[in-house]
Write a structure and sequence with these properties.
Elements lengths: L7 H11 L3 H10 L2 E2 L5 E4 L4 E4 L9 E5 L4 E6 L14 E7 L2 E2 L11 E2 L9 E7 L5 E11 L13 E10 L7 E8 L2 E9 L3 E7 L5 E5 H10 L8 E13 L5 E8 L32 E11 L2 E10 L8 E6 L5 E6 L1 E6 L2 E6 L11 E9 L9 E4 L1
Parallel strand pairs: 11-14
Antiparallel strand pairs: 1-4, 2-3, 3-6, 4-5, 5-17, 6-7, 6-16, 8-16, 9-15, 9-17, 10-11, 10-16, 12-13, 13-14, 18-19, 19-24, 20-23, 20-25, 21-24, 22-23
Length: 388
């Protein structure tokens, strides 16, 4: 579905808001991390990304609680007909969304990046999401292209709207009709095509997931091969979020990242290598009994997948310099994505070692790693923890 936020009315509203002063608007957004305004937005990650409420399809209240790495929908009133447009598109974005551009390390501002530019091939993105148990929605990327080099950041993109649906719930479908399938980024996708003044190409993952990492060019090459786009067009923004029709409370963007130098994105919820919550030893750790425990909490479930969080605690009197957690999945589940740890899986056996920055735990201290799994959520898991 397309963003009806690209309208003359929105442009008029944006102009009146920006008339206050860009500095004042930024200060308001920073001071109000819970956004209920129709077009409310706030920078995250030092301005590298922007979170937007983007309630473009309804007058009913929608609020999002902005975190340092994403947001959670905390109120989502009203409904929309499931054979029409959604209520909104709360999302995080990198690049330019009309007159607002992200600032920190943005190679798309203000005139986009041509798909023939060698840098385009290395643009990669990663996302992690959590879904509620009810509601009608899709969880999707919205990636925008302009046919020519944009002359202003307020232009409506006239090239293509590339959507990547990671999950959807309820009787909804992309704009247009299904035209085929594609295997991209290790998954199979149904490909839909429509037009609303520009090409809308939607890739719907046949097996839903709560996380993904991919090169934008991998999807764009498929778009171009179908005659629906061109390497002469300009990428202007990469957005990830949710389109709710019914409900939406609980939809969470845990993390979102874009890299432009060819490196693999790291989920932005991952702590920096010098966490302030972990004690730093000033001398050689004293000897003593070493031990740890690991406790699992299932934090989200959906058809074909689940999300878990494991808390590792040092139960000994000596400081741990490393730890490792192991378990056996009972029904063939597999790890899809994991953060704050280093995973390995052989068959049903899973082992997660500490990351370089969270192995050091003082007596009584704890840390947490999270993961997304494929398959049904296990009722319980017997976790073992070893530390040294």
């Amino acid at each position: 579905m397309t963003r009806r936020s690209r309208t003359v009315a929105l442009l008029a509203l944006l102009c009146s808001l920006l008339g206050m002063s860009g500095v004042a608007a930024a200060q308001v957004a920073t001071a109000a991390p819970v956004l209920c305004d129709q077009w409310g937005s706030a920078p995250i990650q030092g301005g590298r990304y922007t979170v937007m409420n983007n309630r473009w399809g309804t007058s009913a209240t929608q609020c999002i609680d902005v975190s340092s790495t994403g947001f959670t929908v905390t109120q989502a009133d009203g409904t929309a007909a499931t054979n029409g447009a959604p209520k909104s598109y709360p999302a995080a974005y990198y690049g330019c969304h009309y007159s607002s551009c992200t600032t920190n390390g943005n190679i798309l501002s203000p005139n986009g990046l041509q798909a023939s530019d060698p840098r385009f091939a290395s643009v990669s993105t990663s996302v992690s999401m959590t879904y509620p148990s009810s509601g009608t929605y899709d969880a999707a990327y919205d990636i925008w292209f302009h046919k020519s080099r944009p002359t202003t950041t307020t232009q409506q993109n006239d090239g293509a709207e590339l959507m990547v649906w990671l999950n959807h719930a309820g009787p909804i479908q992309p704009i247009g009709s299904k035209i085929g399938t594609a295997t991209i980024a290790g998954a199979t996708w149904d490909v839909w095509s429509g037009n609303s003044g520009w090409n809308v190409i939607s890739y719907v993952r046949q097996q839903p997931t709560a996380s993904a990492t991919f090169l934008v060019n991998d999807f764009w090459k498929d778009v171009v091969s179908r005659g629906l786009g061109s390497t002469s067009w300009y990428l202007t923004s990469i957005q990830a979020g949710f389109e709710p029709w019914v409900g939406g409370t609980g939809l969470t963007l845990n993390s979102f990242s874009v890299t432009t130098d060819g490196t693999q994105p790291t989920p932005t919820s991952t702590p920096t290598p010098t966490p302030t919550s972990t004690p730093t030893p000033t001398s050689t750790p004293t000897s003593g009994p070493a031990g740890c425990t690991a406790t699992l909490a299932i934090t989200g479930t959906w058809q074909g997948g689940f999300q878990g969080a494991v808390t590792v605690k040092n139960t000994g009197s000596a400081m741990l310099s490393r730890w490792s957690v192991g378990w056996t999945f009972p029904s063939g589940q597999t790890i899809n994505n994991l953060w704050n740890g280093v995973p390995s899986q052989s068959g049903s056996q899973v082992t997660v070692a500490n990351a370089p920055y969270n192995g050091l735990l003082g007596a009584g201290a704890s840390t947490t790693f999270g993961f997304v799994g494929n398959g049904s959520a296990p009722g319980s898991l017997a976790l073992t923890c070893t530390g040294s």
